[in-house]
Predict the 3D structure of the following.
Amino acid sequence: MAQQLVSKMDNWQELEHKLYMQTFKRVPVTLVRGQGARVWDSDGKEYLDFVAGWAVNSLGHCHPAVVEALKEQAQTLIQASNQFYTIPQIQLAELLVHNSCLDRVFFCNSGTEANEGAIKLARRYGSLHLKGAYEIITTRDSFHGRTLAMVAATGQDKFQQPYVPLPGGFINVDYNNAERIRAATTSQTCAVMVEPIQGEGGVNVPDDDYLKEIRAWCDEKGILLVFDEVQTAIGRTGTLFAYEQFGVEPDIMTLAKGLGSGVPIGAFLAKERASVFAAGEHGATFGGNPLVCAAGLAALKFIIDNDIPGKARQVGRYFVSGLEKLKAKFGFIAEVRGRGLLLALGFTGDIAEDVVLACLKEGLLVNRVKPNALRFMPPLIITEKDVDEALDILEVVFDRRLGNGG
Ligand SMILES: *Cc1c(COP(=O)(O)O)cnc(C)c1O
């Protein structure tokens, strides 16, 4: 039954193939409804969702706090433009500033846009305080977004090659090696931008001292440190912001994915001394509108008031111990890595695609982050029972592989 449902091509998928630009390699499921950590497809089949809108639905699908805030705001004021003051925007800014090491906020609509804004801010800082320095050092295997500038920032050939020539001013160096950053720094460098843990690059956790060494170097050179926390923040890695775990504060930080628990919102924040934009130097039509900010406010308030980051840390540890048991049993599992509920399972071979499809049949949604690695980014509200269910499915799928000779 399950097998038949997965292989069946519904009309929506045929239509998509005809109408939509074929740039997403989708798995053959059409989702129509979600609640908590569960989603349902167009045939009514239920799945345990460990993708969560790509690490976006931090409180799960259709969390009542978010739904209520959206309903209320939708019948009050949806969009007003930034020519005017609006209250949800200021409330969300206040909550972010009070709970982070940063002093000021700017809201936009996505992670890419947040990073673009952060880079513009760093360049503006360079033009005002660093004799026009404009270069940004970023790392290989990073992911910073899809605009041309963020593709240049993203140190992965496959994203860059189709679009050369790219905007200049970005230097990509190896991750988890502070010496490479020191060696790449010139009088033209205005900032270093890194993910505290690389997400799209495969869930790569750096050594304990890496971010501290970069911080010390940026201080020595008077350049800015930008953390792209689009994926790692809002409790995902077990603290509200990942920087808290490394004992390092950035000068600029970007947010998006988990911030609105499903609504499209991005933000960049900066320390006062780095908040150098003057009137008219940056903007956004939709950015920070009352609708998304009301949702973001409700989500973030719930996350903070209920210590969701602490819960993610706890259930994440439980998940890791279960994954370690699978690793002990199956020789083709090479590694368990990640923090909180941003976790990955590395394999000795390129089997992740097959595993994703096999899990799908069994009712579990997971992500193939690399040909040889699965990523788990479930809602932060999952329980140990949900984790047990996912582990059981993984074990069934892996047992079957073993039966077939690995
Ligand atoms: C997803 C992601 C982005 C891009 O965010 P979009 O909302 O897709 O533009 C940027 N940086 C990191 C670290 C991400 O994980």
